[in-house]
Write a structure and sequence with these properties.
The protein is an alpha+beta fold. The protein has helices spanning 2-13, 18-21, 67-72, 92-102; strands at residues 25-29, 41-49, 54-65, 84-88. It is elongated, with a radius of gyration of 18 Å. GO terms for molecular function: ATP binding; serine-tRNA ligase activity.
C-alpha cells in the first residue's frame, strides 16, 4: 500500500510534461534522522521556492508500521497489529505559493500556461 501511494505521487507530480508544470520539483526519500518518531519511512514531493531559497514539501506519504496501532491497541482479525500509511496529496497553500512564485515574470506578471485553458481572461 505504501509503495502504491508513492507511485501515485510520482504519477501526479511527474507527468510527461513535468518541465512545464513543475520545472523545479523533486521526489525525495527522507533520511532516517529527519523522520518523526512514529515514521519508518517517508517520501516527499518538493518544489523550489526562490524567495526562501530552499525546497518546500507540497506532498508526502509516510509509513508507520505498527508503532501507532500498538499504542492504540488496534489489531486486525488475525490478532496482529495493523500497519498504517499516512499522506497528503497536496498542501494547497504551499503548492499555489510555489507555482505563483515560479511563474512570475520580471515585470511582476504571472504566466501559468497550464491553467490558461481553464481561466478566461478579459
Amino acid at each position: 500500500m505504501y509503495q502504491e501511494m508513492v507511485d501515485l505521487l510520482q504519477r501526479l507530480y511527474t507527468p510527461k510534461t513535468t518541465s512545464e508544470i513543475f520545472p523545479y520539483g523533486r521526489m525525495r526519500s527522507v533520511p532516517a534522522p529527519q523522520l518523526a518518531m512514529w515514521e519508518s519511512c517517508r517520501n516527499e514531493f518538493q518544489l523550489w521556492s526562490p524567495s526562501l531559497r530552499k525546497f518546500i514539501t507540497v506532498a508526502a506519504v509516510s509509513k508507520s508500521n505498527d508503532f501507532i496501532s500498538k499504542r492504540l491497541m488496534i489489531k486486525h482479525s488475525g490478532g496482529h497489529h495493523v500497519h498504517m500509511v499516512h499522506g497528503y496529496v497536496a498542501d494547497v497553500t504551499k503548492l499555489i505559493a510555489c507555482l505563483l512564485e515560479q511563474s512570475q515574470t520580471k515585470n511582476g506578471e504571472v504566466n501559468l500556461p497550464l491553467f490558461q485553458s481553464f481561466v478566461e481572461i478579459n
